[in-house]
Here is the input.
Amino acid sequence: MTKEKTSLFPEDKVLEDQGKNLILFNDEVNSFDYVIESLVEVCDHTFEQAETCAWIAHFKGKCAVKSGSDEELRPYKAELINRKLTVSIE
Here is the structure.
């Protein structure tokens, strides 16, 4: 007798949408203070979290600053872009 494997999530898209990251990219335009301030105000980071993300982006070229579904991250992305930061959802 064989059992048929069933998924708890009927749509694969639901699974794909989870675990996305909002990525902040290093740039040569914005100051560390401005990036930190933006992360604190937009992403609700503590000063220490924002500072760490700014340093990681500076040295590694990018840093994940928030995680969630694509839908959850879109407003954060829009506001950071509005503040002239370079970000993407990956």
Residues 26 and 60 are 8 Å apart (CA to CA). Residues 5-10 have pLDDT under 50 and may be disordered. The chain has one domain: 18-89. The first strand starts at residue 20 and ends at 25.
